[in-house]
């Protein structure tokens, strides 16, 4: 009893001591943070910053961190020290997790195939980590901007001055947004406001901040208007808030729909080894398919499908933007004389197609020139030819290797107790000796049998005959596995098909952008509603504002503006021809009316009257667009899984069943 009481008292004392220690630790940490903050602000140096200074001296890390830093600088206007620390934190997090996972997977890998899968998986994981970190920054800034708009609205109600409303809202913002708010205030109060607004457009982290600064600039320049007793500026702030809310909901739902699709796309390639073990343990004869030529081809096809599915999902989720890294590599290759000469020759020979490619590249906002695109097609063709050639050569190598070092009996020895593994290995060694001896010579059955009889100690003549037949059959199979003319034809066909893959990717990008076309048109409606009540606004001004915020229609609007001074109606009519999408064409038709007969406000009066309808339709269209992307993404993600079931489970079982059925039929025929 006393012992129990003593244990209880000691336990209580330990718990109280631990709680006191934790509390004291928290207090010390808080005090240390305050002191650390003063020290950091003074000397601006700590572990992350010191690591950054060291890392930038390493060429590979310098380029890697430069790409991360550029993405952070767009969203975060902090000082250089803070951005460098944040860049280093991202680098530690992304590379640390990726390298740790890679080492673990490589240690667990038992073959070259799984080593390749490990590298591919870590590449995907790394991209997802970077995307997650940057998207989190972007979404947090957008939420802070939404609160900022609410504060601006409140302060504008008090004194009706935009610059003062922004200034009063700075202290109420979170840290990241306060930096952008300060920049907005400096832009709107600058003496050279037009140039500062243009500079802000170039560096704005998102289109919503560009819209806000555009609204504020217009009201400062032309004054606020009142429609039906309501301030147009405050009404437009409400519209902008609604746009941001819809965007946040769209991102949240899109992220939810796509959160596991990349993993689903690559998961099947991890199951191949487990499927093989399960299948062979139940039906040992299946080893011939999994360990032979068929298994290698099936594995290659499934690996390619997984890579393609992952890339398509990423492009679907991110509106199919092109990577600037690939464009830099292509531009460097074009500086090589012979490559540039070949690319120019192709461009001139297929000039009409090149113009078609150029239009498509501009339409999809691809970050490459038409010559870079042609070079990309050439590279795809060459790589496809070399890879398919390598696959065929490897297929023949696998077949020959299995003939020399394996046999059905050896594979089945672990499952059949009546097969002696040592005997099988000795038989394979004997066969290999004679195959290597006669693989490049003409040999008859009698010559082979005589050689075996002289060199082997076979007392039974039938054993010599059986061995000679078996070895002769293996020699014939060995010789049959060489590169054939029709395999070269297949390599050429695959090369031609691969030549069109970049073009098909562009078409895929165009299809995804078409899904977003209506969304962009609705944004044009919002911009026009902000501009239409300004007395001196012109059609050309509206086109300029639309061009500032356009993505999909940007090239066509730029073309229209370039030719506008030579004929406004002709330029607008050409814009309809270039972009026949009905909702966009309707906007251009209204602009034509405003240029010829009526005012801009009258031309777009229906937008104001049907604002609520458009808003509800916008929500519905966003939901339909997200669901459509989700359905397409799910379909693509499950293609590798379906292909795995077909190629790695069903077909081997079906082929083995057919072969056994034929063998059984032959046995029945012999009996009768």
Give a structural overview.
- This protein is mainly α and 672 residues long.
- Helix content is 83%, strand content 1%.
- The protein has 32 helices and two strands.
- The chain has helices spanning 2-43, 47-55, 59-75, 80-108, 112-159, 162-170, 175-188, 193-203, 207-222, 232-258, 261-266, 272-282, 287-290, 293-317, 324-333, 337-349, 351-363, 370-405, 408-412, 421-438, 445-455, 461-480, 485-499, 501-531, 539-549, 554-562, 568-578, 582-596, 600-603, 605-609, 611-637, 639-671, and strands at residues 226-227, 230-231.
- The protein has a two-stranded antiparallel sheet.
- Helix 24 (501-531) runs antiparallel to helix 31 (611-637).
- The protein is elongated, with a radius of gyration of 35 Å.
- 23% of the residues are buried.
- Residues 1-21, 23-28, 31-44 and 319-326 have low confidence and may be disordered.
Task: Quickly describe the structure.
This protein has 672 residues and is mostly helical.
